[in-house]
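Hi F.,

I've been meaning to write this up properly since the lab meeting, where we talked about keeping a consistent format for the predictions we share between groups. The idea is simple: the sequence comes first, exactly as it goes in, then the structure tokens exactly as they come out, then a line or two of notes. No screenshots and no reformatting. I'm using this chain as the first example so we have something concrete to point to.
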Amino acid sequence: MKKLSLLCFLLLTTLGHSQKFEGLAETPPMGWNSWNTFGTDINETLVKNIADKFIDLGLKDAGYDYIVLDDGWMAKERDANGNLIADPIKFPGGMKALADYIHAKGLKFGLYNCAGSKTCAGYPGSRGYEYQDARSYASWEVDYLKYDWCNTEKLNAEGAYITMRDALKKAGRPMVFSICEWGDNEPWKWAKDVGHLWRVSGDIINCWDCEVGHGSWSSFGVWNIINMRKNIRSAAGPDHWNDLDMMEVGNGMTDAEDRSHFAMWSMLVSPLIMGNDLRTASPETIKTLTNQEVISVNQDKLGIQGFRFSNENNVEIWIKPLENDAWAMTFVNMNDKLVNLDFDWMKHDIGDDVNGKRMDLHNSIYNIRDLSSHTNLEDTSRNLKANLGIHEVLMVKLQKK
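Output, unedited:
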């Protein structure tokens, strides 16, 4: 009898164990987030205009589908029943009507909140209201929740995110769960079964390699974030991604830096979440953001995160295995002057020991495809030569002949 009771207890415990919604992010999510450009200055008209631009600019066709409202969408206080409500001035139609507008365009709708008592901008957080808030999101047909980490006095990060994960599961509507605790509690070690992506750094800022202090915290440039974490690439894979933050493409860096930024986010299988004003984006910015050949590297089914292979004369070389025994490589000019690239394939042993993959350069010849210019280059029987401008990238795909 005791053995049977123990068996029943274990069975009930196993059946009752909650998990995230599986299979929602088999490749890194792609979309747009309001924070980098607008902060809390968001409203219903702006968001509808952004949704329209997804269609007009070909962004939906390129694979972008999430429109995520960051901090500042809600009223400063909950209602009499403790429910979150949309700011009635910014969003007079409410969240459900806005979600309907976005869904009608074949896009998906995302919202932001925080594990603490208040959000980073001082709006109502979800601490103590996790299940109630999850029910609200489900009733509004939200598809994506970004969950921040401000005002979380003495909370345990893993426990707090598990609580919200379980609340979302209980609410019953599948949502991508974006963990945003800035990498302080090493989420790559515990978040695979909790969320679909997790931030690895503090907030990004629109510069190449700067750090901007804000008192107790800092914002980081593109290369600061790339260099911030070591030995976490094995944590990334289908349905669980290292998130390098929303992109700053189109927000004031040079076009070359934007191309390098976009290439590196693709190589590192970070979610491709735009952070610019799509209403005023330049043709060059849209060209970068909709480059299908670069996006295909990010969306490759293997889901292997790329890594730094070498640095030769301050030209960083990164490699990433792709499906069908193909490889992506990026050459990024870190110099403040033009560089003449002359890469001898025969002098390099290129492989990924973590995933047991290796290029067979001595016995096979690989075709080389330039993913930016959409042209075929000479194969690996000859040196790869190119002129790289300041902070410019050459991104190529290699496939056996």
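Notes:
The mean pLDDT is 95.
The first helix runs from residue 2 to 16.

If this format works for you, I'll send the rest the same way.

G.
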